[in-house]
Amino acid sequence: MIPNYSKLPGTATTIFTVMSQLAAEHNAINLSQGFPDYECDPKLIEFVARAMKDGHNQYAPMTGIPALRELVAAKVSHLYDAKYDPATEVTITAGGTQAIFTALSAYISAGDEVIIFEPAYDSYAPTIKMLGGLVKPYEMAPPDYDIDWEMVKKLFTANTKMIILNSPHNPTGTILREKDIQALIKLTKDSDIIILSDEVYEHLVYDGETHRSVALYPELRERAFIVASFGKLLHTTGWKVGYCLAPDYLMKEFRKVHQFNVFSVNTPMQVGIANYLEDASTYSGLSGYFEEKRDLFRSLMAETKFKLLPCNGSYFQCVTYEDISDEADITIARRLIAEYGVASIPVSAFYIRNTDHHVLRFCFAKKQDTLKKAVERLMKI
Prior knowledge:
Layout: H1 15-25, E1 29-30, H2 42-53, H3 66-80, E2 90-93, H4 96-107, E3 113-118, H5 124-130, E4 134-139, H6 149-153, E5 160-166, H7 178-188, E6 194-198, H8 218-221, E7 224-229, H9 230-234, E8 242-245, H10 248-261, H11 267-276, H12 281-284, H13 286-301, E9 307-308, E10 316-320, H14 329-340, E11 342-343, E12 345-346, E13 359-363, H15 368-378
Parallel strand pairs: 1-11, 3-4, 3-5, 5-6, 6-7
Antiparallel strand pairs: 2-8, 7-8, 9-10, 10-13, 12-13
């Protein structure tokens, strides 16, 4: 008999992998997993290729190459008027998920409680559980996924160690408003609670709205990890390069874990990205670029039987299907792939309790033709 030593006995293969595999098996249009189906800027490829040819192919410094850390610090200073020391408060990571895992690993121990807002990116809860921590979920609900901060307050105990934020939010496409930030400041005032702010979609905010980074608020910034992703910024999710910001005393512990996790991130990509991002226009127009895709997808989807939910950020559009079926969201998501050739993500997968509000998530970071073909199929329902 083989003993079961699993730290995550109830955890199966991620829903992203499952739906993408089904999409491949049925030759479906994949609007499930969050990655573009178009290429990044050829200039970026040239910068990376040049870095390889110039011999930047060995280990990078554990914290990331200085040029990229300095660029990140300058970018954050410009956007949010927040000063981070590139030597001690910026670390280049192997994508946003690794940064999240490392921040949790550095501070969460058995019995520590972490508040998350569901539906939540699916790496949060398993990582907390694996570390022996306790997940305290606050369940948001459609159509607006608003947060009742008085209810959040009831989740606080003497064991509350951390709160995880995500704005712009995956999967709902919502954003934190000023009232949310002020409520959070009030709730955590005079406490030692750490904030982990997942801001990988920071440049994807629409309709003239502002991304309220935790970096903007000194009361939060002084005890916060901020996670970002170059994959979302540069349309290169397969490169798995991101970064983490934190004050020196938090980053010291983060780097202790980071060095024994990945140690360092691939060198030529760091060099290429550093050279490419010297031109701020490479990311300053990103919100407009994706807003056009969002508007196109919403206008197309308005001709279907699906009902659109608000989308103020990220590159995800959520819909309800109450006028189509009363099936479970995982059931209809599978059926859409098999019968109509379009893959989505059932939002119940983002809740620990698999709470089903009959909502599906579609990714619109795709070519116009891809979006049009997908909706043509969905119009047949």
